[in-house]
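Per your request, structure below.
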């Protein structure tokens, strides 16, 4: 409960893992650490993973173990939180100071991405480009986005306005999310995309007036009677 309260007050969550425990347990994260990481992402916080005590895995006898830990942690992070790609993972030793400066630098970088704002004009130019470079199997049935805009930051939240009651497919939303992260360097940050419907304009509804039916009304000067022409 206390960890959740701390998480709600945070902008960026630095999740610290123990390299020695990872080597012993042969897994990167405990259940409690997985819960914290998932909660951070669900609450829209930026996440930085820090693996401490790497100094305990130094030396020729531990070289294979050192390499395995460095390879396994990013893979397991991606498996535990598949919806977020590019979560930064830093390997440090607090006791000898190695890598400590990089932690704060990475946290600041994540915070700047988390606060990023993009103009509507820039986003719609981007949307035209990404739509043109992606070929859908059934282009005719793919929902068209009328325009795309960012409604808030922290985390970056976007709205896609689509025609009528149609909805974007999950595949298309994943494609847009992936493209946003790649093109605007937002890897490791939760991105939210919402959808809004733009009502279709009623076309050619008839009216009781002569003007709406395409007919004109001519009034003669001699009397007040009207004739339809």
């Amino acid at each position: 409960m206390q960890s959740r309260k701390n998480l709600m007050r945070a902008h960026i969550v630095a999740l610290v893992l123990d390299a020695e425990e990872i080597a012993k347990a042969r897994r990167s994260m405990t259940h409690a650490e997985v819960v914290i990481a998932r909660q951070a992402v669900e609450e829209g916080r930026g996440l930085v993973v820090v693996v401490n005590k790497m100094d305990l895995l130094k030396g020729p006898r531990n070289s294979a173990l050192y390499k395995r830990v460095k390879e396994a942690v990013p893979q397991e992070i991606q498996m535990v939180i598949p919806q977020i790609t590019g979560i930064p993972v830093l390997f440090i030793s607090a006791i000898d100071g190695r890598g400590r400066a990089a932690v704060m630098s990475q946290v600041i970088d994540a915070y700047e991405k988390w606060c990023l704002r993009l103009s509507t004009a820039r986003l719609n130019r981007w949307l035209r480009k990404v739509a043109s470079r992606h070929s859908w199997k059934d282009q005719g049935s793919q929902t068209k986005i009328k325009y795309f805009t960012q409604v808030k930051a922290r985390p970056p939240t976007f709205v896609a306005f689509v025609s009528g009651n149609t909805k974007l497919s999950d595949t298309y939303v994943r494609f847009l999310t992936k493209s946003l992260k790649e093109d605007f360097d937002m890897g490791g940050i939760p991105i939210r995309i919402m959808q809004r419907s733009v009502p279709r304009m009623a076309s050619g509804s008839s009216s009781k007036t002569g003007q709406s039916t395409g007919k004109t009304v001519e009034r003669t000067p001699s009397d007040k009677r009207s004739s339809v022409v």
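DSSP finds seven helices and eight strands in the chain.

Regards,
D.
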